[in-house]
Every structure is written in structure tokens, then in C-alpha cells.
Amino acid sequence: MGNYSSYTDNELMQSIVDKDTRAFSELYDRYNGVLVSYFYKMLWQDKEKAQDFMQDLFTKIVEKPTSFDLKRSFKTWMFSVANNMCKNEYRKQSIRKNTSYDVEEGYQVKDTAMDAMDKLQDSQFSEKLTVELDKLEEKQKSTFVMRYFQDMSIKEIAETLDVSEGTVKSRLFYTLKKLTVSLKDFAPQLIKMLIILISIIH
Amino acid sequence: MNKKTTYKPDDIEQLLLNKSYEELSTSEKNFADSQVDSPAEYNELRATLVSIKQLAQEEEIVEVSPRIKEDLMQLMEEKANRVPWYTWNGIAAFLFPTNTPLFRKPGLQFAVMGLLLLLVVNIGLNSFDNTSNQLAINTKSEAKEPKKSIETQAEGESSFEPIAIEEIEKVVEEQKQYNNGEKSDNDIEDKIAPPPTPGMVEKVQVLDDAIDFATEENEDEIIAPIAVKDAKAKTSTLSPQPNMAKEESVVEVQRTTDSYNAVTLSEVSVPENDKSFKKKRKTVSNSQSLSEQDAVIDLLFVAL
Predict the structure, then answer these.
(1) How big is the CA angle at B253 (ends B251 and B258), to the nearest 5 degrees?
(2) Residue A30 Cα, gap to closest chain B Cα (Å)
(3) What is the pLDDT of residue B291?
(4) A194-201, long-range: CB < 8 A, 24+ apart
(5) How far apart are CA B193 and CA B42, in angstroms?
(6) Considering A146, A172, B208, B275, which has the largest number of Cβ atoms within 10 A of its Cβ?
(7) Coil/strand/helix, residue B205
(8) By the 8 A CB rule, do B76 and A22 touch?
(9) In degrees rounded to 5, what are phi and psi of residue A46?
């Protein structure tokens, strides 16, 4: 067999269809971290849940690799599956309780005993950002997370969510505006810029 | 501020990430002004976006348990070692290939075609052959029904059939012989009736008269025991016999009628051209039928 790291995602998927276990291993190594991170962001920073969802997704790939259309991009297909899983989870949670997984409950408080001022600010900003992200609509949130936390291009996001690129751009811009209003007091860069500006003047 | 004429968030994102409002060129400022309400808002958006990007880069990596990979690899190996049924059969592999969607599988396509063909043929045959089908059903029902009835009768009463035929043949033969004059009344009498006892002759005469009376009234009818009763009643009122006992029960009359009806033939000797003789002949036949009425009629009925 060849070197699997040189294989494209679609070539690996073709090998998985042909029951190549090493191809599956390579694909898992490529995407397990990205997927866990996405689920972690999308599912109230619950590490256990994020890992379970990631495992479920790869189990689907093992069980039915033919469900993936080889003409499509594997990354966008994988994220669309992940996004649908998140949607189902939101629905389940909203049925179970209005906000069973409350933002504050699901959120894991980071270590606040940091000495540096900017780190403290970063931490506060991160907490607040997480809270505000969870307040967003599912569509806005997924678009924003894919763009800024998964480094996906506008085109990839559009393919994944099956919407136009213009829709993705508008969602991103309005989400950014919304977050700016709610995070106004916590933006560390703004504070840093102000500090720098003051120091220059002095 | 400025009215937003264009909307290019992707472009504004690049500006926000790379330049502050002060660093923007005139054209860029014009574009930025079309997207935001004020330079302050631009800077706020920029600060938020830069912070988020920075945070995303610094974000802690969620550690994935190695157990997950082990489980998945085990599952994958199990799947790889599982031999599907269609690998044993090249035709099945052709009909149900793995890499095609369900509707493109030839097996499914053939199945649908076959089903459609079957439906079309079936509907076509039904629409053209309605009348013949109907006729076939009718003939079947007509042909079957009598067979069934005969079969059931034969099954139920097969033991009676030969007896009935024998009886009928016997009666017909006797009738022929009688008509040809081969047999006299005495022959018949000898054959059928027991020798008369002395005390019964008178009784028989009375009975004979009664039967004559009854047959005059209804010649074509077979004399039933009830009719005999009526006749007896009439005869007893019209011509009472002194030799006979006055109290004759209906049962007695009936019994004597059954036992000695044939004797009347020996007692009567009238020329053939006599009208009453004819009546009596009829009476004989009627009396014979009386004796065997139940069995013979039933058997005839069954035979027919």
C-alpha cells in the first residue's frame, strides 16, 4: 500500500468503501481534532458530548461509507453531517427542557487565577463570547464557528450549509455586529489598543 | 451616516482584520462608510473580530480519548472481515453493486420492470377476457352441481340404489307378464300373499270395498294409509257387515290393509271388460304400492 498521508480525503473515502482499515485510520487522524473542536463549540463546551458525537459520526462513516458522494468535498460533507447532528441535539434539548443545557451550566469555567492582566481579560472575554455565541441562532452560530474557529472558507461554508455565499457573508457580518454590541465591554483588543494609544500619547 | 449601497461583508472582513479606520485609503474609507455607521463602529467591529480570531487560535485543544479510535478501528476491521452474501454470486454482485445509489441498482430496476410487466399483462388479460371468464365460470358451476348432487346421493344412499332398481324391474316384469296373460291373478296372489285364514275373508272383502270406494274418489292418487282410514270410516257407515266386529280400530284396518291387500285379487273374479275390474286392477296396483309404498317411493325418488 502507498503512503496514506498523500491521499486526498476522497481517495481515502474510496479506500474505506473498499474496506481499507488504514485509510480509515488516516482519515480519523486528520479530522478527529477538528470535529471534536466543532462539537465542543457547538454543544455547550461539553467535552464528553463532543467526543461522543465525533465517535458517532465516524461510526456512520464506517457503517455506511457509500452514503458519501465521491464527487463532493469530504470536508463539507462531514461538517454538514456534524451540523445536522447538532441541530438534532438542539431540538432534543429544547423538547426536554426549555434550556436544560443552560449556557451557564454547560460552560466550564476556566482558571481565573491568572496573574497577567491581559490573560484575565482574555479569559473574561472568552467566557462572555461563549455565552453570547450560545445565545445566537443555530444558523448564525454554526456559520460563525465554521468561519472563525474552523477556518473554513466562505465557499466551503456555503456548500456545507447548502446556502449561497452571499447568505454566508451576510450572516457573518450581522453576527459580528451583534457580538460587538454585546461584547463591547469585554473586547481585550480594544482595551489593549486604548492602553497603547495612551502610552504613545504620554 | 452614508446610505449603504453595496454589501460585501467578505471584503469588509479583510479590511477589519488588516487595517484600522485611520489606515484605510480614501476608496476603502468610502467602502467602509457604506458598511458601517461610523469610524467608531468600524473600530469596535475590528477589535471584536481580532479578539475572536486571536481567541480561536489560542483555544485549548480538546483531548480525544484514544479508546475512541481503538473502538472505531475494531468496528472497521469487523466490517472488513464481514463477507457479504453477494460476493458469492457474481450475478447478485452485478445486480446490487455497492457504489451506486439504490435507484441505480440493476436488481431493483429489473424488479420494478418485472412488476410493471406483470401488472400490465394481468390488466390486459382481464380487460379482454371478461366474457370468456364469465362463461367458464358458468359452465363449471353447471357441470359441477349435478355431479356433486349425484355423488353425494350415491355416497349417502348407495346401498339403496341396487335394491330400488331390482324392485322396479320386478314390478315392470310382473306388469308385463300380467298384461301378456302369462301370469294370472292367482300367480301373483301366490307369490305375494300368504294363504288366507278362514276368519279373515270377510274382513278382506270389507277392506276391498273400502279401497274401491277410495279409489273411485281419487283414482290417480296413491292410497295413503290416511285415505284408507277415511274409506274405512265411510264403508263402516254405509254398509256395516254383521260378521265383523263392530269396534274396528283404525290401526287394525290399516294393519289388515297392509297384510291382505293382495288377497282381494283372489276374491274377485270379474270379466276383463268389466269397468269395476279395471278399477280393481288399479286397486291391486295401488294396494301393492301401499304395501311397499314407503320403501319403493323413496327408492324411486332417490334413483331419479
Answers:
(1) 95
(2) 12
(3) 54
(4) none
(5) 142
(6) A146
(7) helix
(8) no
(9) -100, 110
All structural domains of chain A: 1-103 (1.10.1740.10), 104-202 (1.10.10)
0.80 exceeded by pTM: no
- pLDDT tens sequence across B144-181: 555 555 555 555 555 555 667 788 888 888 888 877 76
Q: Give the ipTM.
A: 0.75
* B44 at A interface, C-beta within 8 A: yes
Residues 6+ apart with CB under 8 A from B253: B207, B210, B228, B229, B232
CA distance B63 to chain A (A): 8
Match 478501528 to its residue by C-alpha cell: B73
pLDDT tens for chain A, 202 residues long, are 568 888 899 999 998 888 888 999 999 999 999 999 999 988 888 889 999 999 999 999 998 888 888 888 999 999 999 999 999 998 888 776 654 444 444 444 344 334 445 555 666 777 888 888 888 888 999 999 999 988 899 999 999 999 998 899 889 988 998 888 888 766 555 555 555 655 565 5
Q: Under a CB-based contact definition with an 8 Å cutoff, are residues B264 and B288 in contact?
A: no
- A40 contacts in B (CB within 8 Å)? 62
Residue carrying C-alpha cell 463602529: B41
Torsions phi, psi for B27 (to 5 deg): -65, -40
Q: CA-to-CA distance for A92 and A94, rounded, in angstroms?
A: 6
Question: Distance (Å) from the C-alpha of residue B104 to the closest C-alpha of chain A?
Answer: 13
B-chain residues near A163 (CB < 8 A): none
| Spatial separation of the C-alpha atoms in residues A41 and A126, rounded to whole Å | 12
Name which of B160, B138, B112, B106 is nearest B299 in CA terms. B160
Residue A60, SS3 per DSSP:
helix
Which contacts of B268-273 are long-range, i.e. CB under 8 A and separated by 24 or more positions?
B268/B208
- DSSP state letters, B47-80: HHHHHHHHHHHHPPPPPPPHHHHHHHHHHHHHHH
